[in-house]
């Protein structure tokens, strides 16, 4: 059988391609050692691995920190998964990851006991703010919703099918809803902290998707449609959507970086976190180096990745919490 | 029989084309129309999808797609960071690339092939050449193989993730993903290898045995080499299914990385190409979504390339007896 010549040619070919791709350009960051102004006190001699998993909302922010640190010359190998806030805590509390991204606080009744059982101690660090943005089709003549109207719109008991069911002053237009999937931290936050129904669910006759781009297309393409997602997705599609102002009792407030930072955009401004395993932080120099770098460059990382940076008080609180891990 | 059918088809076609027919009744025309619709529906949808993806990815068919790691920074912010001595091209999402995914998927394919081919071929050789064809055991295995081939990929991901956790292997490394993908394509490899062995004429085996060779020698020196075209075709088709899988790799804990995997690659953390495309497609920035579209075309080209290799091998080494 004369199969050998081809096989002989194929295997080294594929191997060479793999080697070429792994090798090319690998040293570009190392050359810039020392010149990286703004690198803070990054120690480029620290090596090691850092395993991160969790929220897909926080994912772009942690990858931005990873990219910036690599560009500043650090050889630390950070891998960032995105199995969702809940999925992230599952592996974090089993001790399999060093850091967990979260778009909501850890759940006291479900997740904390698992962490305790496995002896995983952790520190919660707030890294950014997100303005959960309620958007409608740009032609809809609605500009502002009160919190009660939000509950009437998204609550699990809601039967509203026309905007006039919510407020008689609203236009006579059918409501079509596009909301994030029930597994996401965004859904959890709207259900538990805004609508705050005991069931911690939202109405189930709205279309839902895990992909925020699907929600953007749904709302921008359907007259009378409403939806909600993180501020970044609104900002990138501001020409196709209209963001509603929210009235929590002190007048209508539009979502923006400023109103989210100063706390006036309530109750929809939500904190975004990373959870750091204390054991990993104290025992693995790479984890400590990465978290220190992340927090030191928090504003650059947050705004660079399209998030809203913390205000001074919250940033000080994050730095205090970080300082508390070692001690 | 078959020539009669061909003639009938030719008559139908020619009469349709000329518009002159004795049996131009409405029902036969409607049926033919339905057949044409079925044919073009699938092809047209696929064609539209590929063209649409290629157009939306058009701005990003550049070398950065292959040489850069994932880059998240908003292009304007990346420009602003240039003032701090960093190169905006190494941060800006407008230059994001799939280098870690392409490298990772190549490593993953080689490792998967190394796991799945020996296991699959050995299992098939046993079932086809050594096991009794009438025993109940063989029948049970046969039915189960067919069932396993239809199990959704994500189930294999969960299986492999549990396996890795039990063994105590780190999450997100190449070998974990390779085990999941190897399990996924094993039934396909076994089934196609059995088909290939079955197509080797019995005269070859009988001739070999008559000359005094043992069953083992017959299998190793005659049957298996004759079946190589069929085996390699089936294996490559299985691998090209595996290279496009993302779901099982999410279960294994594959994450975004921006470093080159270290030797030996199987224990290194890697990223997979389809997973990286998926992440890019759900990004908020349009430049990243464009890169995802370009990545889809590259992945498609890789899969078509693998299928082409399978066809070349089959045509080149096919024997007729």
Automatic annotation (TrEMBL), chain A:
Stretches that traverse the bilayer: none
Pfam families linked: PBP_like_2
Gene3D superfamilies with a match to the protein in the record: Periplasmic binding protein-like II
GO molecular-function terms, A-Z: phosphate ion binding
Domain PBP: 44-296
InterPro entries assigned to the protein according to its UniProt record, in alphabetical order: PBP_domain, Phos-bd, Phosphate_ABC_transporter
Signal peptide: 1-25
Alphabetical keyword list: Phosphate transport, Signal, Transport
BP terms from Gene Ontology: phosphate ion transport
Function: Involved in the system for phosphate transport across the cytoplasmic membrane.
Recorded family membership: Belongs to the PstS family.
Name of this protein: Phosphate-binding protein
From TrEMBL, chain B:
Keyword terms, alphabetized: Cell membrane, Membrane, Transmembrane, Transmembrane helix, Transport
ABC transmembrane type-1 domain segment(s): 102-310
TM region positions: 29-51, 106-127, 147-166, 173-192, 291-313
One Pfam short name: BPD_transp_1
GO CC list: plasma membrane
NCBIfam families assigned: 3a0107s02c (TIGR00974)
Protein name (database record): Phosphate transport system permease protein PstA
Protein species of origin: Nocardioides antri
Upper classification of the organism: Bacteria, Bacillati, Actinomycetota, Actinomycetes, Propionibacteriales
Gene: pstA
């Amino acid at each position: 059988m004369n199969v050998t010549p081809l096989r002989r040619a194929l295997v080294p070919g594929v191997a060479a391609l793999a080697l070429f791709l792994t090798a090319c350009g690998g040293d570009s960051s190392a050359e810039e050692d020392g010149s990286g102004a703004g690198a803070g006190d990054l120690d480029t001699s620290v090596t090691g691995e850092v395993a991160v998993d969790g929220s897909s909302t926080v994912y772009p922010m942690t990858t931005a920190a990873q990219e910036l640190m690599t560009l500043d010359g650090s050889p630390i190998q950070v891998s960032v998964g995105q199995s969702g806030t809940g999925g992230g805590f599952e592996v974090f509390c089993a001790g399999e990851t060093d850091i967990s991204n979260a778009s909501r606080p850890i759940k006291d009744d479900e997740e904390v006991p698992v962490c305790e059982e496995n002896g995983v101690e952790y520190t919660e660090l707030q890294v950014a703010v997100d303005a959960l943005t309620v958007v409608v089709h740009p032609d809809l003549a609605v500009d502002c919703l009160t919190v009660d109207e939000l509950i009437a719109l998204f609550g699990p008991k809601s039967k509203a099918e026309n905007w006039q069911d919510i407020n008689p002053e609203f236009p006579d237009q059918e409501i079509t809803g596009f909301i994030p999937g029930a597994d996401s931290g965004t859904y959890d936050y709207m259900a538990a902290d805004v609508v705050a129904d005991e069931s911690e669910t939202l109405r189930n006759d709205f279309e839902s998707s895990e992909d925020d781009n699907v929600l953007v297309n749904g709302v921008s393409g359907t007259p009378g449609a409403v939806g909600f997602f993180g501020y970044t997705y609104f900002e990138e599609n501001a020409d196709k959507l209209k963001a509603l102002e929210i009235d929590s009792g002190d007048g209508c407030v539009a979502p923006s970086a400023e109103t989210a930072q100063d706390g006036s955009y309530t109750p929809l401004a939500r904190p975004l976190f990373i959870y750091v395993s204390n054991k990993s932080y104290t025992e693995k120099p790479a984890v400590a180096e990465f978290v220190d770098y992340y927090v030191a460059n928090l504003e650059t990382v947050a705004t660079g990745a399209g998030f809203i940076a913390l205000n001074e008080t919250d940033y000080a609180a994050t730095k205090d919490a970080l300082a508390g891990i070692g001690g | 029989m078959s020539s009669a059918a061909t003639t009938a088809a030719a008559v139908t076609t020619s009469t349709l084309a000329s518009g002159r027919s004795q049996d131009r009744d409405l029902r036969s025309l409607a049926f033919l129309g339905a057949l044409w619709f079925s044919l073009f529906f699938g092809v047209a949808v696929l064609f539209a999808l590929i063209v649409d993806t290629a157009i939306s990815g058009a701005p990003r068919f550049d070398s950065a797609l292959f040489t850069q790691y994932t880059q998240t920074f908003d292009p304007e912010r990346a420009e602003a960071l240039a003032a701090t001595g960093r190169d905006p091209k190494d941060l800006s999402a407008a230059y994001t690339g799939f280098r870690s995914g392409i490298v990772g998927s190549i490593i993953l394919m080689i490792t998967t092939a190394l796991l799945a081919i020996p296991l699959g071929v050995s299992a098939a050789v046993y079932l086809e050449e050594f096991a009794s064809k009438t025993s109940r055991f063989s029948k049970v295995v046969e039915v189960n193989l067919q069932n396993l081939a239809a199990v959704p990929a994500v189930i294999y991901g969960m299986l492999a993730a549990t396996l890795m956790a039990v063994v105590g292997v780190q999450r997100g490394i190449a070998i974990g993903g390779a085990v999941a993908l190897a399990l996924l394509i094993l039934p396909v490899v076994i089934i196609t290898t059995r088909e290939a062995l079955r197509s080797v004429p019995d005269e070859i085996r009988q001739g070999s045995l008559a000359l005094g060779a043992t069953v083992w020698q017959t299998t190793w020196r005659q049957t298996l080499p004759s079946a190589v075209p069929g085996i390699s075709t089936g294996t490559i088709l299985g691998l090209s299914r595996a290279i496009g899988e993302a779901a099982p790799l999410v279960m294994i804990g594959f994450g975004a990385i921006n470093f080159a995997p270290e030797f030996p690659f199987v224990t290194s953390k890697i990223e997979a190409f389809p997973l990286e495309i998926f992440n890019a497609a759900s990004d908020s920035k349009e430049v990243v979504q464009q890169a995802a579209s370009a990545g889809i075309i590259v992945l498609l080209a890789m899969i078509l390339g693998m299928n082409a290799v399978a066809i070349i091998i089959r045509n080149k080494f096919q024997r007729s007896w």
